[in-house]
């Protein structure tokens, strides 16, 4: 079996054209596009001028990317604050810009309502008669809601409303809220 063919390294003009092609397929943060271009650049020094030119042409804008990415993660995926912040960090968005984008996306929303929406959309079995009736199912629901980016206090409150036996949640350890403020 032959070795996989490596992509050809690109000169400065070709690198800019490649970047435009990438941006025509989907949105990128400048950090992600920079990493992608470094893999294809014949000369690493060609990457930063290409990124600067794309920003000058307004083809690349981290503010716009972060705002739309955060809004989509909240609207479409029903994720909470911490999950959206983590996802923006993975997209190589600065912490300050990520915080602004998430604050804007969550503006006017209560975390309790967001948790209820998440449960309705992503965990409909929890709403059935025997959905959350034992410790194992409650623990799984708790972990899933925490992974979705919601704080432990509101998660426990929501689960108590949906649990067949809310007293099972009395032994759940509440994690420190300070942990959630870190990215």
Short description:
The chain is mainly α and 183 residues long.
Structure description:
The chain has 183 residues and is mainly α. The radius of gyration is 22 Å and the shape is elongated. α4 (62-75) crosses α5, α4 (62-75) packs across α6 and α5 (81-90) runs antiparallel to α6 (95-106). The chain is 61% helix and 0% strand. It has three domains: 12-56; 62-106; 111-178. The chain has helices spanning 12-25, 30-40, 47-56, 62-75, 81-90, 95-106, 111-122, 135-147, 152-162, 177-181. The model is unreliable at 176-183 (pLDDT under 50). The protein starts with 11 loop residues before the first helix and ends with a helix.
Element pattern in H and E: HHHHHHHHHH
* Radius of gyration based on Cα positions: 22 Å
For the sheet with most strands, the description reads:
none
* Helix-residue proportion: 55-70%
Q: Which runs of at least 5 residues are low in confidence (pLDDT < 50)?
A: 176-183
By oligomeric state, this entry counts as: single chain
Total tally of structural domains:
3
């Amino acid at each position: 079996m032959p070795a996989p063919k490596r992509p050809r390294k690109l000169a400065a003009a070709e690198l800019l054209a490649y970047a435009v092609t990438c941006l025509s397929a989907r949105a990128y943060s400048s950090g992600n596009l920079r990493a992608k271009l470094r893999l294809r650049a014949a000369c690493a020094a060609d990457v930063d001028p290409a990124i600067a030119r794309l920003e000058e042409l307004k083809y690349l804008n981290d503010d716009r990317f972060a705002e739309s990415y955060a809004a989509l993660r909240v609207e479409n995926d029903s994720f909470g604050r911490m999950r959206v912040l983590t996802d923006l960090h993975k997209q190589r968005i600065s912490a300050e810009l990520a915080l602004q984008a998430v604050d804007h996306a969550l503006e006017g929303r209560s975390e309790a309502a967001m948790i209820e929406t998440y449960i309705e959309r992503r965990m409909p079995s929890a709403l059935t008669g025997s959905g959350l009736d034992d410790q194992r199912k409650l623990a799984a629901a708790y972990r899933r809601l925490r992974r979705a980016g919601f704080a432990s206090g509101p998660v426990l409150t929501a689960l108590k409303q949906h649990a067949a036996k809310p007293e099972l949640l009395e032994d759940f350890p509440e994690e420190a809220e300070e942990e959630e403020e870190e990215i």
